[in-house]
Task: structure prediction
Amino acid sequence: MMSDGFQITLKSTIGLEPFKVGLTWLMVLVENVMLILLPLAIGYAIDGVLSQSMQPLIHFALLLLVVVAIGVLRRFYDTRVYGRIRFKLARLVERNLSLAPVSVRSARLTMSRELVDFLEDDLPNLLTAVVQLVATVVILAAFHLYLALSVLASGIGILVIYGLFHSTFTRLNGALNDQLEQQVTALSGGKFANIRGHFKRLMNCEIKLSDTEAIAYGLIFVVLLSAVLVNLWMVSVLVDPSVGTVFSIVTYSIEFVQAAIVLPITLQTLSRLTEIIQRLNVSATVDAQVPDQQEVSYES
Result:
């Protein structure tokens, strides 16, 4: 059963300040197109210095200054835009959940901030990753097709690994959110056993989630780092590669690893947000029927 009020989704959250959010995305894209060119510019600068030419080094320095300037301006702007969105969203959540128990309202107001955190932090990282992944594959393919196929194969591998853990992440995030919604009730009860039991259950939820993350990302890093080693080995198939070329191949292979790891992290965050969005849109009348003092055993 859904609330009759404002339907909270990532799309509707963006709709609170659509043009300003769009501008932040444009700045992220411009910044990252320039960032992806840095290793290539460094490679040219190395070859230029070795051949007694300073012009490539000057070009690299200018590119670096532009990247820094855009990055600083974007972060000043982002803070203000997403701060305003957090303010608007909090008012809407509070209005939708006005009839819900205090414990539920408190937890879900905090959860709602995660939607904006995703837009401010995770989504720019995802856009950065996509730009880097596409550019890295194209640039590596320019050196040799096998270099690009190596990193593409590792990218497919990490998506398969995440797919195997997806349902577990969703279930564990749901259990964690269930426990968070009981926090105010546990604290307001004043009984030490209830409070102790709540925090013990919360700790157990966090440990299970962290352990699952450790296993999943350990497997993912093994796959990605294997691609870097394969590309290092495949440098031998190039005909007389320069020092700058070898540097660029190694750097772009490592950048692919850094960009690719963002994908499962973002997917996990989206799984958590999907569960949170369902909670935020549950009818306030349904929440109101849940007693503030829930009959939950807090005993250890």
User: Anything to note?
Assistant: DSSP finds ten helices and no strands in the chain. The CA atoms of residues 125 and 262 lie 7 Å apart. The radius of gyration is 24 Å. Residues 192-234 form the longest helix (43 residues).
